[in-house]
Amino acid sequence: MIRLHQFAPAFGLPNASPFCMKLEVYLRLAGLPYEAVNIGDVLKAPKRKLPYIEDDGKIVADSGLIIDYLKSRYGDPLDGALSNEEKAVALAFQRLMEEHLYWAAVHTRWVPDAAWRATREAFFSSYPAPLRWILPYVGRRGLLAQLQGHGMGRHSAQEIHAMGCRDISAIADFLGDKPFMLGAQPTSLDATTYAFVANILWAPIDSPLREHARALPPLDAYCRRMKERCGI
Questions:
Q1: pLDDT tens digits, residue range 131-180?
Q2: By the 8 A CB rule, do 226 and 218 touch?
Q3: What does the DSSP assignment read for 107-162?
Q4: What is this structure's pTM?
Q5: What is the architecture, at CATH level 2, of domain 84-230?
Q6: Inter-residue contact 18 to 50 (CB < 8 Å)
């Protein structure tokens, strides 16, 4: 059975990490049996990031690479019937969320002190002492450095919020009145979209991104459909 190594559920969500949540949602939608290992130990992860899986002795890290691996080994029930154009659109939206919106959301969680306290509790409270005292500050310093390296962190808070809100609007506009991102049935893009949108919309961290997502009712309805469909 596939063993999914990830953070523990937090914020009332399956996972406070959109990448971990994305992978677990994919496993559910694809009907693949798995065991969740919710220890959240990044120090044991092969790339020092979560999630990663163990599958019949093989270890695979990175949510995108894991999904590619699962498709190659177990088939592609979600995306196999998509046209090349649909696959291109799915990839573009995946990149929008994972390489741009993600960093705007990181800023809202890890930079403001009030949000940081909630984030620290979500990701580090399960560690034993003294790690739960040391790792949060090491992790925060490292992630803020990554924000600067990516470029998002070089903008003002107002500029970052505006960029993130534009991404959220793009998702909502493309979704429109469709049940799922690419039509009547969920695809792997929906695993990504649900994970990222729910982590902004439903996580108990106030931010301009959350306010903007709340002003777009189709997003909440979409997340509720996805929750009902995959069970988490």
A1: 888 889 898 999 999 999 999 999 999 999 999 999 999 999 999 999 99
A2: no
A3: HHHHSSHHHHHHHHHHHHTTSPTTHHHHHHHHHHHHHHHHHHHHSGGGS-HHHHHH
A4: 0.95
A5: Up-down Bundle (1.20)
A6: no
